[in-house]
């Protein structure tokens, strides 16, 4: 009887491991949602990767949790160290914007001057591993890359005003874009945002029609679109989401602790529109609590709902007139599929837009590879290059 019980325990453990690894899930082609314009049909023709099965590493890559964990812990495999030039600009409120410009390492096949404007995810910068990999890959295809460093994210840069980045703040991005256009007046811009950065790039392009004029397309990867709708979902334990939110909260607290002296300074406290509760913020276990006691107050909002509503791209998403590709993964443990209804609605109303929903990929993972070891360049890196190349060909070259 003891032997049977032991075998049963082993079988149960193996079953749970297989369920966690999601090995029974069969890789498939991405699901595509789009209009029927001639432009989007040509885009689809020039992006062969989008019609192929996305096949992650078979041992662990079918688990959204492990894809996300690989992104969070390793970022990428064999990540390069692209060399760029760091630029700083003092802003009217005393904050200092920093961004990095990486030159192209080849001539683009269209021979156009092209600059990819990259907005990283929460607390990330040009020094983050997945951003470094993406930058190097784009450089080798002939793109200049400008990467926004979120206020407070760089460990080597002290903030010069009592504020850090916010979920949907576009002031820093606007100044970076203006500076890039002054440095390279003949360049065409392509916007790419990852996670929170996807929200920021879409909000920037949608909140003012003038912002779209120098951009030829936009790409958003793994964003949640509507922070108000996400509010209740973030506090649930579905798919262990509450644990991920706790880890994200810890990262935000690390950013604030690096600059705690700036926020504790008596003179700086007087500059804040609403007084913050730093002890409560630093003891928060969720982004909801952290944003209530810190972020919305620094941003000058009387309520958390007002802050989340104003900082979500969903309220201005329909104003974007550019070709736009939105990408999400069904197994993303942080962004539930319910939030992707915004993307579905967007492509219904914009004939030149494309929504790509993959079966696997997790949150900013999208690793490819064989049984165990992932490739250095991910599926999403390749997909973004193909899409950008297709847009450039159709909008800026005679062949299009």
The low-pLDDT segments are 7-18
Q: How many strand segments?
A: 9
Overall shape: globular
Q: Helical proportion?
A: 40-55%
Mean of pLDDT: 91
Taking strands numbered 1, 2, ... along the chain, how are they ordered across the largest sheet?
1-9-8-7-6-4-5-3-2
Largest sheet: 9 strands, mixed
Strand content: 5-15%
Structure, described:
With 400 residues, this protein is an alpha/beta fold. Helix content is 40%, strand content 14%. The chain contains 15 helices and 9 strands. The chain has helices at residues 2-21, 38-45, 64-73, 129-139, 171-183, 196-207, 227-234, 241-258, 260-264, 266-271, 278-282, 287-298, 304-310, 341-349, 379-396, and strands at residues 31-34, 85-90, 96-102, 114-119, 144-149, 188-194, 215-221, 324-329, 353-358. The protein has a 9-stranded mixed sheet, sandwiched between helices. The longest helix has 20 residues, at 2-21. The protein is globular.
